[in-house]
Amino acid sequence: MPAETTDPAPLEVDYLVIGAGAMGMAFVDTLLTETDATVAIVDRYDQPGGHWTRAYPFVRLHQPSVFYGVNSRELGTGAIDAVGLNAGLHELATGDEVLAYFDDVMRRTFLASGRVSYFPMSNYDGPAEDGAQRFTSLVSGRTTDVVVRRRVVDATYMNVTVPSMTTPRYAVAAGVRVIAPNDLVGLTSRPAHVTVVGSGKTGIDACLWLLQHGVDPADISWIMPRDAWLFDRARIQPGPPAAPEPGGVEPDPALGSGAADQLIAALESGGLVMRLAPDVVPTAFRCATVTRAELDELRRIDDVLRHGRVTAIDVDRIEFGDVTVPAQPGTLYVDCTADGLEPRPPVPIFDGSRMTLQAVIPCQQVFSASLAAYVEASYDGDDLKNELCPPGPHPSTHLDLPKYMLDIGTRTRRWSEDPELRAWIGTARSVVRVPDDASLQTDEAAAFIRHALAEAGAPVG
Ligand SMILES: Cc1cc2nc3c(=O)[nH]c(=O)nc-3n(C[C@H](O)[C@H](O)[C@H](O)COP(=O)(O)OP(=O)(O)OC[C@H]3O[C@@H](n4cnc5c(N)ncnc54)[C@H](O)[C@@H]3O)c2cc1C
Asked: What is the pTM of this model?
């Protein structure tokens, strides 16, 4: 191997973006459109797309393609699916389509602009002694210093984890077969029984994949640590809202005690959110989005194990702390416990010479990254920029559903006060709509949600 070297002349750019995942790509795209800045992008992986490069083969977006990707380029064709469990709704790009799209954006938009340099297979090392930023090629070992005139943009902070990046966090005895969903497509013989571990979107995808391949529901068990409220994808489509606008629900203040539960019940009866089992009240909310047809499929699985998190799996049993349930020897376990929405402490997005990209609207990361670039280009001063772009941490519990409604309402009301920002959001890839008259959420509705959250012990600032 050649000795490690450092490039003699440092690279000079306006922005150094660390991470070519969906957020880094969305940020750079809007920055190029709104400014004449130069950008260097550094990423550990060999192609743009971040976690999509490590995804299971049958992954798809769970929100319509039209809402995803960079602002300057449509993802997909805007087609409506004619068949399958998403029939009648806007298409959902596959993982391969997402990767092909980001590759095309990188080559034909970013690199073709002459203003972007891209360094794949390179690790960002941090600042060097002289204040320059440094990264190192993971292949050649060559180190490059970058003089950054404006900001270093951290597009890695959300720390997305997908199953192929992790190993189970529970003990697995010898003789027990646990695979990532990535390996389902490599099966060469029928397993006696399959148990899907994890109730998030990946667990849902794995169950649907098994059912769609004709596995008898009686041969599937599903370990569900927490039931979650699920968005109905029919309500998250382009065009006029088909359900109560988020934040627009006007609860009855007379409801008094249990206000948060009443508020969630109103969202359920309004058709925005759904639950898997009619007799189980979900305690989680993770922004997962399904269709009613998918929910009907999932309900064919009867053996849903609701004992909390798995602590150990042995050949003939599964342990959930103090609870042990029998298991069929020879069961194939599909581990879907990676946390794609790791809770990250919110930090200011704009902070002197750095930016730390985070969701501004929870679960709308690409819109948020693009908004941050627009605000960076169009406004002066970090205080104002942070006021326009407060972080919206990932949701976890059911109480984060009312909080999500509140966040959308307060942010869109603030944005609607600025005609240019409102107009820009109207052109952005986003589920979020900002009405002209700031009517999305009344003061009374916001006050009620705050009351409901305070009463439930989850006040918002
Ligand atoms: C299965 C799945 C489906 C999803 N579906 C949707 C959807 O339908 N709609 C939607 O809006 N969102 C969806 N999301 C969420 C989504 O893709 C987000 O947009 C996600 O947060 C974007 O990823 P990111 O850019 O933040 O992070 P990542 O994709 O993780 O990218 C971060 C990048 O940073 C690089 N990196 C990290 N550290 C370093 C370092 N030190 N040096 C160099 N490079 C580094 C990594 O290599 C990586 O490429 C989905 C997520 C998952 C997991």
From this structure: 0.94
Report which of 459, 275, 410, 363 is spatially closest to residue 264, judged by C-alpha positions: 275
At residue 302, φ and ψ (nearest 5 deg) are -85, -35
pLDDT of 248 > 70? The answer is no
Write the CB contacts of 95 (distance below 8 Å, at least 6 apart in sequence): 52, 55, 56, 57, 59, 60
Return the top range by mean pLDDT from 196-210, 337-351, 405-419.
196-210
Q: Which residue has the tokens 């309900």?
A: 299
Side-chain half-sphere CA neighbours of 243 within 13 A: 19
CA 446 to chain centre: 25
What value, to the nearest 5°, has the Cα angle with vertex 118 and ends 117 and 122? 135
Name residues whose C-beta falls within 8 Å of residue 100's C-beta, 6 or more positions apart in sequence.
Answer: none
Ligand 1 atom nearest the C-alpha of 202 is: 1
For position 113, what pLDDT does the model report? 98
Domain boundaries, the chain: 11-160+342-394, 163-227+275-335
CATH of 163-227+275-335, one of 3.40.50.2000, 3.40.50.670, 3.50.50.60, 3.40.309.10: 3.50.50.60
Asked if pLDDT for residue 175 goes beyond 60, the answer is: yes
- Distance from residue 275's CA to the centre of ligand 1 (Å): 27
Domains 11-160+342-394 and 163-227+275-335 are alike in CATH topology: yes
CA-CA distances (angstroms) from residue 190 to 59, 74, 187, 331? Answer: 22, 40, 7, 11
Between residues 393 and 140, which one has the greater pLDDT?
A: 140
Nearest atom within ligand 1 for CA of residue 48: 49
Which residues does a 6 A CB cutoff place in the pocket of ligand 1?
18-24, 42-45, 50-51, 55, 59, 61-63, 68, 123-124, 155-156, 158, 160, 162, 340, 364-366
Residue 7 banded pLDDT, cuts 50, 70, 90: low
The CATH number of the domain covering residues in 11-160+342-394: 3.50.50.60
pLDDT tens digits along 44-99: 999 999 999 999 999 999 999 999 999 999 999 999 999 999 999 999 999 999 99
Pocket test for ligand 1, best of 44, 135, 361 (most atoms within 8 A of CB): 44
Name every residue whose Cβ is closer than 8 Å to that of residue 373 and which is 6 or more positions away in sequence. 26, 27, 28, 29, 30, 31, 34
Q: How confident is the model at residue 429 (pLDDT cuts 50, 70, 90)?
A: confident
Name the more confident of 355 and 431: 355
